[in-house]
Amino acid sequence: MSLIDALDSVTAPSETSFTAEEILARARAVAPRLRERAEDVENNRQLPADVVALLRGTGVFRMARPKAWGGPDLDAVQQTEVIEALAQGDASAAWCAMIGMDTPIYAGFLGEDVAGRLLADPDTVTAGAIMPMGRAERVPGGYRVTGQWHFGSGITHSTWVVGGVLVTRGGELEPGPPGAQGNWRVIVAPVEDFEIQDTWYTTGLAGSGSRDYRTENLFVPEEYTFSFAAPRVTGAAATPDAVLRNMPGVPLGTARAAIDHVRRLATTRIDRTTGTPWPENYRVQIAVAQAEMDLSAARYAVYGSLREQWEILEAGDVPTRDEQVATVLARVNAFRTARSVVASLFDVVATSAVYRPSVLDRALRDLNTMCQHVIAQDQVIQSAGAHLLGGAPHNAYSVGVVL
Prior knowledge:
Blueprint: H1 3-8, H2 20-44, H3 49-58, H4 76-87, H5 91-100, H6 103-107, H7 112-118, E1 126-139, E2 142-152, E3 160-169, E4 172-173, E5 184-190, E6 195-197, E7 211-221, E8 225-226, H8 249-266, H9 282-314, H10 321-349, H11 359-370, H12 378-389
Parallel strand pairs: 1-3
Antiparallel strand pairs: 1-2, 2-7, 3-4, 3-5, 5-8, 6-7
């Protein structure tokens, strides 16, 4: 289906509305059902249709939809709570929900007519990678786009796809701001305009269906492209890093589920060496308390920094470098702490944890895969330090700077 066909087939928005409280309650209610389907999700290597339907029913894909468009307009704290609740059921489903709900955020960087087409279905899903892995040759009315992108999480059930590109003119890169690779833009096009490649054979997050996708010489109208440096809207959702804020919900929820699993397990376990029930076992007591302590500290850092930053941005103020970096470091720490917590619990449970299906085995593999995401890498910590000290960040976007 071409872009024009896609626009002609847009349906009217649903009249069903959700509040922030209803979306969170639905996410919590659906988590046990996701947990039951976790093995099927993993083996399927993408979300089955009924699991996608479960997510749509929670309202998660519309939670950033602005009130002006009839949406619930959840703030970053509320969004993260929803993703965290879903991750307590299944990490892959939560990851796809976290990615797929970005449609209204992208719409805030596009013209109002195009935004209306993206938001015609309040539960539409957008997938794709925003980093510039493609090239967009400037032509009259738009661009001819060629590229291959990795990590298209949720692309198997998406309607729209984004892709980061560097703009060329006559085959040569257009210059960008000082220090940038070039002129970075993001394209938006229907999923049918891309070839989806079955590349997602991974250690963890297998059910996210994060496949490669490619296109060659695709015409994309100018109005279906945007720069994170030029939002149409104002407020907290208009910042370049708006799509990153709720990401910590996935590792936090995954680790929470792992701790709860071990605490339930402890009620029936006895230490083979000493004959001591686990609730009375010093080693188990220390491990569980340490896990709770570490996860709690990471969680409060995430939610505290998000709340402070959101209030500043909604007031029309500009966060200080310290205020901006606080959310960045809390985000990285959430991923790394969650992995550490689950690894420690995996050791406590010992050999029985290695047999599939195992809650701890899957959680550890999912978190290992999450921590390979660029947003949890050392370059982000370096960028935060550079931003604080006035140096050059290696990943400027991760600290909310567009080059």
